[in-house]
Design brief:
- It is built from 18 helices and 46 strands.
- The strands form 15 sheets. Strands 9-26-25-24-10-11 form a six-stranded mixed sheet, sandwiched between helices. The protein has a five-stranded antiparallel sheet with strand order 37-40-45-42-43, with no helix packed on it. It has a four-stranded antiparallel sheet with strand order 16-15-12-23.
- The termini are far apart.
- The mean pLDDT is 96.
């Protein structure tokens, strides 16, 4: 007999379209197997030959958490390059390393959770380092470039499948899983949605991740915007992956649903397709899904929809066509090209903020003092890989200028800690090998434990000199002479064991608390004080040790010593990305920590030729009046030191530009939870004060001339061109920026708004004509009166220049559009959230599935204004749809109260709306003013004759 080869199932037939193959595979999966697909860690289906799969591989600026990889500048640094071609190449390199690493470690996933497109609305946000810019246009341009690099160029098969983070309006870590961002319709459409939309529409995005927070009272994981907006922007099946633990938050912390079955069903129906919860254990999520099915909250068709979206991504990644996958044999890892690209990105990310008197570039034979807490550091953040190569500013300057011409003082305070018994803390000698945290990789680095193979601290008559750094707000680190930081492991003992501060809960930070005639030393990670016991030094709830702080040398004394002997001083200041501003922790101030201010002032007093290099994940507010030269760079990855040295030497002219406003003081900032960028005048778009440094700012070693601004309007675009000429004597990049503003808007519009930019390299004397095609849709705004986009007819100013405030050319164009019309309140009434102006308002959820209502923010009086409401020949009655306890006062044009509607059911639930009527007399076009009294929710106001 002849054996027959079983026919190839259609889902394995590469000649069929993916949609038909997915249909076939779905039909072969059992319900239990499909339910298993809904957890992040998808089990294999061995009977069909389907491998296990996991969603999620962090790759924000290099492959993270999985061991050694090329480390590029932080995302905010990539944003500062304003270079989409560069960022595309970075994305390409990262995705190639993902593929190469997966070939030897199948824990590495191809569904990458990057980039972060949250707008950098507020500089105190702890995760500022993860975003690209405060501007939606620049953010979407950089994010699109990165996703295109991650995706690859093949028309069918993707190298990796990028997921955008974090949907939506997410800029606070304080209470991030329970706070609600109140986002009015104009801000929603013109600001928060825009960066996501333009990136998704570009076609290289596989999905999004909802954020932990709520928007308008509703958790992002059950947001109707996923259906109403996100999925309308593309024909591709987008995969929505939950953030870690967020599905459980719907019940456990947010109390939005009573049961996990209800919550899980609501998330699936809203559009969440993959649940990241309970680590690798999918049993709880799958049990919840089964419970929801049994209760009739879900159907098998709902499960199929979610599984289909995941399978669509897996087919695009070539999983089912390994022999046709063009990326399967990718081996590019830590290549010379990737190393050169990391250096190029670090160089292009450096922003020259100030250069008085031409102090930079440094003279070739200069004697340089390098000082500061970050001078010999190459810091990583939570989403970094493990360094293969490392370059600190000090190492970069040694290499570039010669070690004999460079002196160094870190500026730490050198101390001993004396116990009440008269002995001192002592770090025993350790023979164990050095270890780098996370070097072996981990699916969840939050679970990495501290070292216990080293001896705990003891006490002895002389003690060990420790390096103390105050990172601000009293948060300290203590480092032993051999370079290890004092840390606390799970057994509670204090050891010199960490190569750097880090971890999900940092175990290397302390506070010195005044107590009697000394100090208690509190370990921040555990909240316990340090205690001295016979078997070693540990943290404990009882018997805290009282220490006397013995200062051996103050940091500023060391700085003064080397600064006074140099021709020029480089002060390297900034932040540690794991301390005072990171995921889970917002900053409280823009100011530079006092310890670093002391070092800067000491350097400046000893040597007027002082350069300040800020290496930080966010902006600072500082008095730089007596500092002649100032640079900023985000943490620049593995080549940061080399890049900074080359900029200082003039080998490369700086051309980074600020991707967000640097404010002059904390008083310039709104509350962190105030998401109304229009009403509170946030970001360069609306800020009316004087910034420390404006959006788009950055200087060069060259000078540039702008000439010949011309415009031409076609049916759907404005065509703009102008010429930029390098009038300096060095080759340099210029970042030409094009802004627009409405000259006479009917509603508040941006002071100016970026519509295009170009980074161009020019030789001395070289000129380049830059041309831009600006869609006319860029001039529209969201008209709440009509519930849609509208371009006002009239004059618009075009402004070309080197920053948002350094405008070199301008002209005015007249655009047609749709004239404003009064609100048709007789026909549509007023949706409460569609106000023109507000004070004290919070937008909340009208129901748990859709719609908005307005209530008074906690402790505030709520006022709402709706402009130009057309009452026609007159109305005699007003209706209000509301819930809860309170009343609404209605007036016109700021006059007396004409009607009051009072809730008849003060004890009803927040979603138990009722319609209340009252008499009112109004005619013509009037401004409606509403005052909400009490904690009621107002959804809609209607008028009739």
């Amino acid at each position: 007999m002849t054996a027959h080869t079983p026919p190839t199932p259609p889902f394995r037939d590469q000649h069929l379209p993916f949609a038909k193959r997915i249909d076939d595979l779905l039909s072969r999966l059992t319900l239990d197997e499909k339910i298993g697909f809904l957890h992040q860690f998808v089990p294999a289906v061995e009977r069909l030959g389907i491998a296990e799969f996991r969603t999620g591989q962090e790759a924000l600026h290099g492959v993270a958490w999985m061991g050694p990889a090329t480390v590029f500048p932080q995302a905010v640094g990539l944003g500062a390059t304003w270079n989409t071609d560069l960022v595309r190449r970075v994305g390409e390199a990262v995705s190639k390393e993902v593929r190469a690493m997966r070939a030897r470690d199948d824990r590495v996933g191809l569904n990458v959770w990057s980039p972060t497109v949250n707008l950098l609305r507020h500089p105190l946000w702890g995760r500022n380092e993860e975003g690209y810019s405060e501007d939606p246009k620049l953010t979407s341009a950089i994010a699109t470039a990165y996703t295109r690099g991650l995706r690859g160029d093949h028309p069918t098969y993707w190298r990796t499948a990028p997921v955008l983070k974090h949907w939506l309006a997410h800029n606070n870590e304080t209470g991030r899983d329970v706070t609600s961002s109140s986002v009015r319709p104009r801000v929603l459409h013109e600001y928060d949605l825009r960066a996501f939309r333009e990136t998704v529409e570009a076609g290289a995005t596989a999905g999004v991740m909802p954020a932990y927070n709520l928007v308008n009272g509703r958790p992002n994981h059950v947001s109707p915007y996923l259906r109403e907006h996100l999925r309308t922007w593309t024909d591709e099946d987008l995969l929505v992956c939950s953030d870690a633990g967020a599905p459980s938050n719907l019940v456990d912390s947010e109390h939005y649903f009573d049961t996990h079955e209800e919550a899980t069903a609501a998330a699936i129906l809203a559009g969440v397709d993959s649940f990241t919860d309970h680590g690798t254990d999918g049993s709880k999520i799958t049990a919840r899904v089964r419970g929801a099915l049994e209760q009739g909250l879900l159907t098998e068709a709902d499960i199929d929809t979610a599984v289909r979206r995941q399978l669509s991504v897996r087919f695009r990644l070539g999983e089912f066509d390994p022999e046709y996958d063009p990326h399967a044999l990718t081996t590019d890892f830590d290549t010379p090209t990737h190393r050169a690209l990391a250096q190029e990105a670090a160089e292009q990310a450096i922003v020259l903020l100030k250069n008085s008197g031409g102090l930079l570039p440094l003279a070739p034979g200069a004697r340089i003092a390098v000082v500061g807490l970050l001078a010999d550091e190459c810091k990583l953040d939570w989403y970094s890989g493990t360094l293969i190569h490392r370059s600190t500013p000090l190492e970069g300057l040694y290499e570039r200028f010669g070690a004999e011409r460079v002196q160094f003082a870190e500026g730490v305070d050198r101390i001993r800690l004396k116990t009440s018994a008269g002995t001192f803390l002592h770090v025993p000698r350790a023979d164990a090998a050095d270890e780098v945290r996370g070097a072996e990789g981990a699916l969840d680095p939050a679970l990495l434990a501290g070292r216990t193979d080293l001896p705990p601290l003891t006490t002895d008559p002389t003690g060990t000199e420790l390096a103390l750094v105050d990172w601000g707000e009293g948060v300290l680190t203590l480092r032993a002479p051999e370079g290890r930081y004092l840390s606390v492991a799970e057994d509670g003992y204090l050891r010199a064991s960490a190569d750097q501060p880090g971890g999900w809960i940092v175990q290397e930070t302390f506070r010195l608390e005044p107590h009697e005639n000394g100090h208690l030393l509190r370990h921040i990670g555990t909240g316990h004080h340090v205690s001295v016991a016979a078997d070693g030094v540990r943290v404990a709830e009882a018997h805290p040790e009282i220490f006397e702080l013995i200062i051996v040398e103050r940091g500023e004394d060391a700085v003064t010593r080397v600064a006074s002997q140099a021709d020029v001083v480089l002060v390297v200041a900034g932040n540690d990305p794991h301390i005072n501003g990171r995921e889970t922790e917002d900053r409280t101030t823009l100011t530079l920590p006092a310890h670093q201010e002391r070092l800067l002032r000491a350097a400046r007093a000893a040597n007027p030729d002082t350069v300040l290099a800020l290496v930080s994940a966010y902006p600072y507010a500082l008095d730089h009046g007596d500092v002649p030269a100032l640079l900023w760079t985000a943490h620049g990855g593995q080549a940061a030191g080399t890049a900074l040295a080359r900029i200082l030497a003039g080998d490369v002219s700086p051309a980074g530009r600020l991707p967000q406003t640097w404010y002059a003081a904390d008083t310039d900032l709104p509350d962190l939870l105030d998401y109304d960028v229009i009403g509170s005048r946030q970001t360069y778009l609306y800020f009316e004060g004087t910034p420390l440094f404006p959006f788009g700012h950055g200087l060069s070693y060259a000078t540039f001339a702008y000439e010949g601004l011309t415009t031409r309007v076609t049916d759907d675009a404005l065509h703009v061109s102008f010429t930029v000429t390098n009038t300096g004597d060095v080759t340099a990049d210029e970042v030409a920026q094009l802004y627009t503003r409405a000259v006479d808007p009917a509603v508040p519009r941006p002071r100016r708004e970026l519509v295009a930019h170009s980074r161009v390299r020019l030789e001395p004397g070289e000129e380049s004509e830059l041309t831009f095609e600006v869609p006319l849709s860029s001039f529209a705004f969201w008209d709440v009166a009509r519930g849609g986009w509208r371009r006002e007819p009239g004059p618009y100013e075009l402004l070309a220049g080197a920053s948002s405030e350094d405008i070199r050319l301008r002209t005015t164009v007249i655009l047609d559009g749709e004239a404003a019309a009064p609100r048709p309140v007789l026909r549509r009434g007023l949706d409460a959230a569609d106000f023109d102006e507000q004070s004290g308002a919070a937008i909340v959820d009208r129901t748990k599935t859709s719609g908005d209502a307005v209530t008074a923010a906690q402790g505030r009086s709520c006022q709402l204004v709706y402009r130009d409401c057309d009452f026609g020949d007159g109305v005699a009655e007003v209706t209000a749809t509301l819930s809860g306890e309170g009343a609404v006062d209605i007036s016109m044009d700021g006059g007396p109260v004409l009607a009051v509607v009072t809730s008849p059911a003060p004890d009803a639930g927040p979603y138990d709306y009722t319609t209340v009527r009252a008499g009112i007399i109004a005619e013509g076009v009037r401004d409606v003013h509403l005052r909400l009294r009490g904690p009621l929710r107002l959804a809609h106001v209607g008028f009739s004759g």
